[in-house]
Amino acid sequence: MKKRRIKVLVVDDSAVFRALLTDILESDPQLKVVAGAEDPYEARELIKKLKPDVLTLDVEMPRMDGVQFLRNLMRLHPLPVVMLSTLTQHKADVTLASLEIGAVDYLPKPTKNLQSELESYREVLIEKVKMAAKANLTAHAEIMSGPSYSKIDISAQRFDASLVDVIAIGASTGGTEALKVLLKNMPAKMPPIVITQHIKAVFSKSFADRLNRESALHVEELTNKQSPLIPGRVYVAPGDKHIEVIKKGQRFYCRQNDGDPVLRHKPSVDVMFQSVVKAAGGRAVGILLTGMGRDGADGMKAMHTAGAVTLAQDELTSVVWGMPRVAIEMGAATHVMPLKKITPFLVEMFYHS
């Protein structure tokens, strides 16, 4: 039986860019662009008429901006959405807000009409649209409903991280909101945490700042080439550098690594996890959250083999169950659990009566 093509609605005020996106998407036999809309009002009518599976949505448009349209869409008629934006700091903040509202993923618009760049852009856009069509929108709605547990009372408990030197967390699609949920109710006293989230460089500082506002922990983008790991601090990989953990004498540090992409990713979760194995061996915790692909699975397997505690997010609460699934299938996860159970699990690891 012939497989039904994924129906895509392209929403952008530029006729030239709508035509470009249509050509790119329809070059894949699994995708069909059912229409293009020049503003959200036209898009609203086309959604009712054509029932698309996925939308590509420009961040800024006349009459109603893409974020306000997305907010209305997620409230009234939730659909998988890939946001498209030019790479500026202001639009980075807007794009992160879009992910919070419910967009599955984002993609910067190409900056140059070069054949080499367009070929790379084509590959990534098609991959993201296909992934969005399979995304678990229910998981995002559950994430945004808030924690399913009360903030844990640790006032009469003793903090003990004597067996763990570092917690390493990897995430991709859906991870910006999953990480916010994970850190939101963590106590201020925890082992040092390093994070690799697949994100563009222009977004990573805004992303770290958002996490910092939501958490009792101090969250920062790793802007120095090297920084000591301090308990109660969270270090986020820059969007264009790997992050590694190293040990010098009895002290641990995180550092930037400007090496090649791994599995097309820079920063790479695998690079971070593998460095944790070398630096801390089994005295670590590795966590792999929602995301497309398999980045982090091999590194988590190495952590598991070294004796570290490893956790993978389960399918029901993952927006895209790719990276955790591969790790689980490899036998790399000590525990598989819903997102909202990970924080209580960690608190119980480090706080005792």
From TrEMBL:
PTM characteristics: Phosphorylated by CheA. Phosphorylation of the N-terminal regulatory domain activates the methylesterase activity.
Domain of life: Bacteria
Subcellular location: Cytoplasm
Keyword Hydrolase: yes
Active-site feature positions: S172, H198, D295
GO CC annotation terms, alphabetical: cytoplasm
Any Pfam family: Response_reg
Transmembrane portions of the chain: none
GO aspect biological process, one term: chemotaxis
Record domain CheB-type methylesterase: where: 160-353
Keywords per UniProt: Chemotaxis, Cytoplasm, Hydrolase, Phosphoprotein
Reactions mediated catalytically: L-glutaminyl-[protein] + H2O = L-glutamyl-[protein] + NH4(+); [protein]-L-glutamate 5-O-methyl ester + H2O = L-glutamyl-[protein] + methanol + H(+)
PROSITE patterns xrefs: CHEB, RESPONSE_REGULATORY
Keyword Phosphoprotein: yes
Function per UniProt: Involved in chemotaxis. Part of a chemotaxis signal transduction system that modulates chemotaxis in response to various stimuli. Catalyzes the demethylation of specific methylglutamate residues introduced into the chemoreceptors (methyl-accepting chemotaxis proteins or MCP) by CheR. Also mediates the irreversible deamidation of specific glutamine residues to glutamic acid.
Family label: Belongs to the CheB family.
Protein name stated in the entry: Protein-glutamate methylesterase/protein-glutamine glutaminase
